[in-house]
Amino acid sequence: MEPLIDAVVATWIARIDELFAKTGDPFDFSRWAGFMTYDVISDFAFGASFGFVKSGTDVGGLIKGFYDGIVSFGILGRLYPFTNWIKATWIGDKYLVARPEQVSGIGALMRFRDKLVDQRTADVQEGKLGDRIDLLQTFLEARTEEGKPLEREVVKAEALLVLIAGADTTSTAITALLYYVMSNPAVYSTIIEEIDRATQAGHLSALPQYDEVLRHCPYYVAAVKESLRLCPPATSFLPRVVSEGGMFIDDKFVPEGTEVASLPWLLNRDKQLYGEDFAVFRPERWLANEEKVKEYNKYSLTFGYGGRVCLGREIATMELYKGPLLVLSMHSRLRAISSHLR
Fold it and tell me: Is it the case that residue 337 has pLDDT exceeding 50?
């Protein structure tokens, strides 16, 4: 998995260097973060990058479609348990239910998904499938307990979920990390010094590996964790149903079958856990006290919790340990050159 991510990140850095670093032209970093994460998830899930980075454009209008459709998507998600009733009304059916024939919104992603699934099915039937197994192929080859293949609509739903959940959240995390680091000169300087030391000592490859960053850049890793704490990309409720027998929450009994939920944004700002400076971006908190850090990790909801923890957590973490680190290193070199020329 890591070589796949490395290939996309290397192309991404080269394009940023070519189009912006060398020319001095301004650009929307958040947009380009999305280009990288969409190419990573498409390569991992569908066997080939969609080409966002190479083209420097929103391929197929996928990103625009996601943002156009996220409002209705979010409304339906928060109307539970009335979601199905709302969808059955003419207003819900017309304005809130996504369909492939819709010009914009989630409909654009559904059309793109349908083309991918149809093309893969045709490739399998014609014997054109190579040796590589991606997520889409896994969906198509999966079998139920009865030994039957997944229904077509289930495969399509899984593929759409990958497109929706696998890229935008990571690009949000990458953008937030750069924002927090660049907005805090002391943090920025500490990270650059750490990267420079690790590079000069030969501990970091030209394209840093996950284990290298984890071992030799602890302050950078702490900054990643702190950024994810303050800006969890998925801020929605993560509902769970109370199991048989009920349970006590904050000395209050909650009956079985009750839906309960926590907000990552709020829990990650718990004053009792993080102290009076809970709202401050301070990577040092992840390096100071080992027992306290265990608590932070235990109660973090950034990637969900338990059996429903985010399946793409490791992919997202690898991207965070590579792309932003290289951008910061590039920015530092350019600042040094600029200062020297002045």
Answer: no
Who's near 295: CB < 8 A, 6+ residues apart? 273
Cβ neighbors of 178 (< 8 A, separation 6 or more) are: 29, 324, 327, 328
Distance separating alpha carbons of residues 142 and 317, to the nearest angstrom: 27
The pLDDT tens digits for 62-77 are 888 888 888 777 777 7
The rounded distance, in Å, linking the Cα atoms of 109 and 125 is 24
Residue 100 CA, chain-centre distance (Å), reads 24
- CA separation for the pair 226, 234 (Å, rounded): 15
Residue 276's φ and ψ, nearest 5 degrees, are -65, -25
What residues contact residue 95 under an 8 Å CB cut-off, 6+ apart?
Answer: 72
Phi, psi at residue 244, to the nearest 5°?
-55, 135
- Do 49 and 42 touch, CB atoms closer than 8 A? yes
Q: Is the pLDDT of residue 273 over 60?
A: yes
Give the HSE-up count for residue 63: Cα atoms under 13 Å, Cβ half-sphere: 22
pLDDT of amino acid 338: 42
- Look at residues 36, 64, 60 and name the one whose alpha carbon lies nearest to residue 113: 60
How far apart are alpha carbons 276 and 285 in whole angstroms?
Answer: 12
**pTM of the prediction?**
0.89
Tokens of residue 89, six digits? 């009304």
Please provide the size of the chain in residues.
342
| 319-341: average pLDDT | 76
The sign one gets for the Cα dihedral 219, 220, 226, 229 is: negative
pLDDT digits (tens, 9 = 90+) for 7-16: 999 999 999 9
Q: Which residues contact 10 (CB under 8 A, 6 or more apart)?
A: 207
Smallest CA-to-CA distance from 77 within 231, 237, 235 is with: 237
